[in-house]
Structures are given as C-alpha cells and as structure tokens.
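Record filed here:
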Amino acid sequence: MSQTLANPGAARDHARSMAGTVVEAMPVLPPAAPDLPAGVAADALLWEETIAPGGYATRRLPRGSRLRLIDVKGDACASLQIFNAEMPTERYSFADTVKIQWNAYLAAGKVLLSDMGRVLLSIADDTAGTHDTFSGTSNAATNAAKYGDGRNSGAFPGGRDRFLLGAAKHGLQRRDIHAAVTLFKGARIADDGTIMPQIGPFEPGRTVVLRAEMEVIVVIANVPNVLDPRPDYTVTPLRLTAWRGPVAAEDDPIRTATPEATRAFLNVEDYYRR
C-alpha cells in the first residue's frame, strides 16, 4: 500500500505542498499574460491556459472578446467546437461557413458561421494560414487503428472524446458534438479532388486571433490531425489567451467584406435585439 493511501494526512500535506507549482501546460489563475496586445488592460484578461499534447480546454466567452491561439512549438493542432452559449442547439456549421464565403480556406477576415446563419467567431488575425474545414477530428476507432489505443483515458485520445469531456462541463452530451474546424493543420483540395494535408511541423509561434461575435462556448482539443501521416502521436502545446473587447462596429472590415458577411452580422444583431 502506498504511503499516501496508508496515511491520508501525508496525502493532504503532499497535495498542499504542490501549491504554486508551474508546469508547461496548465491554466493560469488568476489569468495573467506578459504579452497582451497594446491597449488591452490587464483587467480585461479572461483566460490564460496552455493545453498539453492530447489535452483539451473549454470556456464560455462574452460577445466581443478575443481569443488568441498560439502554436507554441510549431506542431499544435487546435480542433474547435463552437456553440451559441445561450442556445447550444445553435453551433458551428461547416456547410454555412463554406457556402456564404464561396471558399473553404480560412484566413484573416473570414468568419465561422452557425447553422442559423449567424457569425459565431471571426478571424481577426492569422499568421498560420494552414487550417482545415474538411476533415473533422479523430475518434477512438481511428486512433486505435493508427496508434494501437484510442481510449479517452489512454495515451492517444481522440478529438471527439476530448470534445465530449469539454462539452459535458456545459451540460452538453455526445449528441451535441458536431463537425469540427481545425486550426494550424491544414487541408487543401487538389484539382482531381485529392485531399492534401498540410501538417508541418511549422515555425513556432504562429498565431490566430478569433473575435467572438456572439456569446459562445468553445471547446478546444489539441490532438493530431486525423490526416497526419506520421506514425507517432505527434502534437505540441497550444497556448490560449482571451480578453474582453468591443463588439464589431458597423464599418468593421470583416463585417463589410462581402454582402453575405454583412447579412450574417445583421442576423447576429437581430438575435440580440430581443
């Protein structure tokens, strides 16, 4: 029998002695970040966390907030579930996102739409340029076939089970897990229809900044892209920083970029006019 099991007092003392320990991947509480953008006050910070390889994180973010994702070492893979926080039956839609932009390749200035035609998140900044709207994420079966183990509690968890853990923290269930959008690992379609993965590894420090156009729940899994050809479970830490910010103005360049984007923003404003 271990010392901690035999002596609960020793277990308590050991746990308390770990207070203040800092590791590479963890949430920072209270949130603090040394590199907030110019003009962002420290008290506007909402979230600071680094997700470990194979890990996940989730948060409810207010309308107007910014979420910065940093590929710290060049091999992170951020797959996202996005929900309307007030009405989670409304969620990210691959079909609407691609359809209203006449383009499946994400970049700065693009929007992520819900299945009700409203903008959930917009891409305010992007130094990565390699994203994937096509492939979804891994699951227990795909990881078991590739790595020999796909259990959520094992060494090679899949993205869908990570999503399930994050969604459950908001009262959501397996039926709520929907098509994912993946950042930092890309996929492009060749002229003959072949999917060409863009896996890297890439230069460390690539960044994507998302702006919340509605109050949203985001669940983020940092797991290898399902198209990654490498035989090993390869993924590196993903850093998240979120802060409060203003809602998009009427002349916002993302809002006014196309007639379809303008309509999607108008749909958001109509929703909040209740």
Summary: The chain has a mean pLDDT of 95. The CA atoms of residues 163 and 219 lie 6 Å apart. Helices lie at 3-6, 8-17, 94-101, 140-147, 159-168, 259-272.
